[in-house]
Design goal:
63% helix, Leucine-rich Repeat Variant, calcium ion binding, Ryanodine_IP3_receptor, inositol 1,4,5-trisphosphate-gated calcium channel activity, phosphatidylinositol binding
Length: 256
Amino acid sequence: DLESIGVQAEGIFDCERSDAANLDLDGQGGRTFLRVLLHLIMHDYAPLVSGALHLLFRHFSQRQEVLQAFRQVQLLVSDSDVESYKQIKSDLDILRQSVEKSELWVYKAKATDELGATDAGGDAVSLEYNAALSQEQRNEYRKVKDILIRMNKFCVTASGPGSVVKPRKHEQRLLRNVGVHTVVLDLLQNPYDEKDDELMKELMCLAHEFLQNFCLGNQQNQVLLHNHLDLFLNPGVSFLIIPKYNKLAKIYVYLI
């Protein structure tokens, strides 16, 4: 009865109807559906049992899933909101692709024998580093750097040098909803030459700065980063990544 189902479906969004909260699509208050699933899980056929259990779990978790989905809804009410979303979405797609194929563009030091490693000075290492990078690699470093700079600007605002940095709550939420922080966290876990790769050190600095700005004055974003706190408390990953920048202190203030 498609007409009856259509009327009831429309009633879900009709707040004026007194019976809007008492929709019954099977005439049994949903019990028929549950009876069928419970019957199916008793069969001696693993794929059928697995599928029925999956539907059973979804049936009882769908309310929570809907609530979670609604929490991630963000209205773009102005032209600037729309433009910000388009820029963030475009940058996120590019950043995700770069992180996923990082092994193709991140610098890898050439293996040298023990004598050569002993005699090589800082200038020689720097020359080798610059000579080893192709134009494609440099373009990739630059592309990721530009994206991280833009992401940082979306998070906070400052009127001038030395002025108070203020969070942009609307943009922080938008960044959270599209999952930018997860891609940046993946970037931080990428292996690289911590001794010689100066361009990657700069990217790591910007990535940490983004996470600091991402959770500045934003409790929801702080909770998300707190779930990954182990990444920042591991000396091998955090404190030794960018020793000369010392950018990590702020993030603990925001998280605590």
